[in-house]
Amino acid sequence: MDINDYMHGLGAGARSASRALAKASLHQRNDALCAIAQEIESATAEIKAANERDLAKAREAGLDEAMCDRLTLDDARIAGMVANLEQVAALPDPIGAIDEVRAMPSGIRVGKMRVPLGVIGIIYESRPNVTIEASSLCIKSGNATILRGGSESLQSNEAIARCVSRGLSKAGLPEQAVQVVGTTDRAAVGAMITMPEFIDVIVPRGGKGLIERITRDALIPVIKHLDGNCHVYVDSSADLVMALDISDNAKTHRYGTCNTMETLLVAESEAARFLPQLSERLLAKGVELRACAKAKMFMPHAVDATEADWWTEYLAPILAIRVVKDVDEAIEHINRYGSHHTDSIVTEHHGRAEQFMREVDSSSVMINASTRFADGFEYGLGAEIGISTDKIHARGPVGLLGLTSQKYVVFGSGQVRA
Question: Which of 30, 80, 226, 350 is the 20 to 30 Å CA partner of 235?
């Protein structure tokens, strides 16, 4: 197989399909999503069997537990894929909406119409449910997509892609609207990110190395985040019962996700009361604690934290803990070491909550909530195509609106410019 010819064939098909999808009715796009949901339900056994084959190869290759967890498709996750499709189908149509219409002195009226981006290239690792999340959002927003999953999830992705193709066909939409790259050759990624004539934006979802490579080499705009070094700050006015539950959930709900807390910051006035309780709970769950000198006074089983720990996204049962003077020092730490992904404050003080919201430079900032809520589904977006820590076009979980742009539309009645 000539990889460039193969990828250019996918690109040409996607570009053609994107034009058909952009003019498809809302009813037709929603019909496709519902048909895909039915296909997924009917093919549950087939999808699980394909996933078991992928998991067997992954374990044989020595993939760690975090990667295997991301790869796994059980009944609950397949049901979640169906729920995702149904939720996206129920969302309002972003396409064609015209807003900000205003009359000008010349008599023309100027507004903005929301339109699809065109073709979205998505490159991701491990998580085969991304195939459905990405497909659903792209179809709903009128975009075609080319999906390149990791080699470890190829059989799972292909089983899901067959369901997507059947659903699109039933709705009368081109099957090329969603295409999964059917080769594990890494040259396919290089070709994909250098096809601006066919692909309008690239969304990488995976490890830092993958995203750095794509950001460096792509000839196409990239929506990305490099890592998820997320923080929870327990303020001097925090409800400590709430803080304990939030900290536990933010760290242990799932270890291998980008919105998992990696560093806990605690106001020094609360350290003696809070840290022993937290230590007991997390050690019972097998979490390794890496603490600064002040925190270690109250956590004798912790190991010494190093400067590197403040920068690290562990994606593992490891937590860095630092005692800080106050909210100002917490904000300074987050803005220095964080990855601008998601950070949370636990406080009953309204003024400090507002200060944290204003001054923390992250795509999601939370008050009295677990960082695990930084998710398109939880934000009511139906799903997300990724998280963006960039500041242009889209930031935070990227849902339907993040996959659209706006163009100016002008309404006249014969005006000519003097």
Answer: 226
Examine the domain organization and report whether 288 and 213 are in the same domain.
no
Range of the domain at 23: 3-223+398-411
Alpha helices per DSSP H over 111-239: 130-140, 154-170, 187-192, 208-217
Tens digit of each residue's pLDDT (9 = 90 or more) over 312-348: 999 999 999 999 999 999 999 999 999 999 999 999 9
Cβ distance 228 to 196 under 8 Å?
no
Give me Rg for the CA atoms of the chain: 23
3-state SS of 21-61 is HHCCCHHHHHHHHHHHHHHHHHCHHHHHHHHHHHHHHHHHC
The helix/strand/coil state of 388 is strand
Burial of 47 (0-12, 13-18, 19+ CB in 10 A): buried
Instruction: Tell me the CATH number at 45.
Output: 3.40.605.10
Sole residue written with tokens 């409800």:
239
Q: pTM of the prediction? A: 0.85
Say how many domains are in the chain.
2
